[in-house]
UniProtKB/TrEMBL annotation:
The keyword DNA repair does not apply. CDD domains: PNP-EcPNPII_like. GO terms for molecular function: purine-nucleoside phosphorylase activity. Gene3D superfamilies: Nucleoside phosphorylase domain. Keywords: Glycosyltransferase, Transferase. The purine nucleoside phosphorylases catalyze the phosphorolytic breakdown of the N-glycosidic bond in the beta-(deoxy)ribonucleoside molecules, with the formation of the corresponding free purine bases and pentose-1-phosphate. Pathway: Purine metabolism; purine nucleoside salvage. Pfam families: PNP_UDP_1. This is Purine nucleoside phosphorylase. Residues 22-268 form the Nucleoside phosphorylase domain. The lineage of its organism: Bacteria, Pseudomonadati, Bacteroidota, Flavobacteriia, Flavobacteriales. It is an enzyme of class 2 (transferase).
Length: 270
């Protein structure tokens, strides 16, 4: 993997990805941040050596480099998921590449369903902690110790300082921002009533199909990370209604301006 990482990094440097300071992973329906960036270089995933290719139709599949809020950023417009058939090493490979390119901070977004019924559609949740229900670890492979400490401490996986700054930014902009625990499941099917009840019992406030693998690898690389969920649907097991993916995308679009405000102001402070 070390050789692959170097080849991918060398390719991107040749394409103009010059010393980014902040990495950003954009989740389902959350691509509008790109409109705020002064784009200096962009490459489709399928042109990048050893990079996975986004197979989900609503994920664009581009790596973008440019200026945002006075900082050089590298942005994943579209991410990878286990439910696409990728391995956990595939899903997290871009995090290793962004770190190798030079990023010092990582910001992650996703769309999720609320377990905590005080969290409503269109609101944001700052992830304070997570539960990994994906059935594996992106660090469980031969030779991982050559890339970082195998037994990574996860007592505080999300950076306290960045999270505090995010909360202050949300307050100053009158943005309703919850804080809670994110459970990451395999998918791609949505949850049953019994699964929503189970998730509530084990302490989850929201559920999705991403983010946790990338956060684990960020911690493996000693890369400070923060993540925000956009609540796009509500998992009330006693009143569960069918959810269309188009509704999830539409709700993510609706809430995205608030997410953009937070990310832009945070990046300006970093």
């Amino acid at each position: 993997m070390i050789k692959r990482i170097q080849e991918t990094t060398d390719y991107l440097i040749e394409k103009g990805f010059d010393s980014p300071e902040v990495g950003i992973i954009l989740g389902t329906g959350l691509g509008q941040l790109v409109d705020e960036i002064e784009i200096l270089a962009e490459v489709s995933y399928n042109h990048i050596p050893s990079f996975p290719t986004a197979t989900v139709e609503f994920h664009k599949g581009k790596l973008i480099f440019g200026n945002l809020a006075g900082k050089k950023v590298v942005v994943m417009q579209g991410r990878f998921h286990l439910y696409e058939g990728y391995t956990l090493q595939d899903v997290t490979y871009p995090v290793r590449i962004m770190e190798k390119l030079g990023i010092k901070k990582l910001l992650v977004s996703n769309a999720s369903g609320s377990i905590n019924l005080d969290f409503k559609k269109g609101e944001l949740m700052l992830i304070d902690d997570h539960i990994n229900l994906q059935g594996g670890s992106p660090l469980a492979f031969l030779g991982v110790e050559h890339l970082g400490e195998r037994f990574v401490d996860m007592s505080a996986p999300y950076n306290t300082e960045m999270n505090q700054n995010i909360e202050a930014i949300a307050k100053n902009n009158n943005i309703k921002l919850h804080k809670g625990v994110y459970a990451s499941v395999l998918g791609p099917q949505l949850e049953t009533r019994a699964e929503y009840r189970y998730l509530k019992l084990i302490g989850a406030d929201a559920v999705g199909m991403s983010t946790v693998p990338e956060v684990i690898v960020a911690n493996h690389l000693n890369l400070p990370v923060s993540a925000i969920s956009v609540i796009t649907d509500e998992g009330d097991p006693d009143n569960l209604k069918p959810v269309e993916i188009s509704e999830i995308i539409a709700m993510a679009h609706k809430a995205e301006p608030q997410l953009i405000t937070i990310f832009k102001e945070l990046i300006a402070q970093l």
